[in-house]
Amino acid sequence: MNNVKKLIGVKLKDTQVVFIKTNSKSMKVVVGFKNATLRDNCEHMITSSNVLNSCGYHAKLVSKMLPKISLHNVLSEVIDEVDRSLDATAIRAQEKTVIIDKIISKNPCMKTLKNAGHTLEVVYLNKNATNDLLAIGLKVSPAIRSAIIHKQQGNIYLGNSRYSFRDRFHFKHCYHCQMLGHLSTECPDKEKSAVCMYCMKNHRTNTCPVKNDPAKHCCVRCLASKYGNDAENCKSHHAGDHKCPVIEREITRLKKNTDFESKNLM
Hints:
The strands form three sheets. Strands 4-5-3-8 form a four-stranded antiparallel sheet. It has a two-stranded antiparallel sheet with strand order 1-2. The chain has helices at 2-11, 36-47, 50-54, 88-106, 108-115, 142-151, 220-223, 228-232, 245-256; strands spanning 17-23, 28-33, 68-75, 120-127, 133-140, 155-158, 161-164, 166-167. It is of the alpha+beta class and 266 residues long. The protein is flat. The two termini are 35 Å apart. Strand 1 (17-23) and strand 2 (28-33) form a beta hairpin. Helix content is 32%, strand content 18%. The protein is built from nine helices and eight strands.
């Protein structure tokens, strides 16, 4: 693997490379470029090496993700006209369509870009049973996100209200073992007892007797972390707290892998 890293370094000796990293676990060599154009131009240069193929390696372009944004406390009346006699899948599809149609009807800059082929779609929709408000997650092109910020002061008009957006960085959180990277249904430890999100004892999170007592909270994820400082500070928060350093590092990683700038990425 190190030989492949050296080979790539030689091939790109005159190119502005941000990094060349190896991952001994996945046996991958990852090359970072400062922009997509430079990356695309160097693809042939890397793949043309017979030595690379003889070592069992091949090159694969990895693009950054499109931005995702979220709107919170949206009045549920925006989806009142959806036909509730349909099955659940059809209802959800119609809700998403109605939301997009209402967004583009009141946000001309977003409509123009969507009509030009830019991405604007609902990827998350949740209704709060307590207050009947919606949380909406949208996947957008970098240009649409930029237009919302610069032309609409960070606001989206939907129904008869105005909502500010937040960037959304989605990661998998298992509520069985409290680790990141998989869901409860995929948990490798699902045959074991559940781990509480608040106190890390073996009971379900919703039955935790100390969930409202921060002094007794403890993060099982930080206790198991390979970073020493995480374990030392595991009692400063619980596993669902976004101040958890493991979650913060994951969000930082997702930010780095999100393209906020490319004007032509749709």
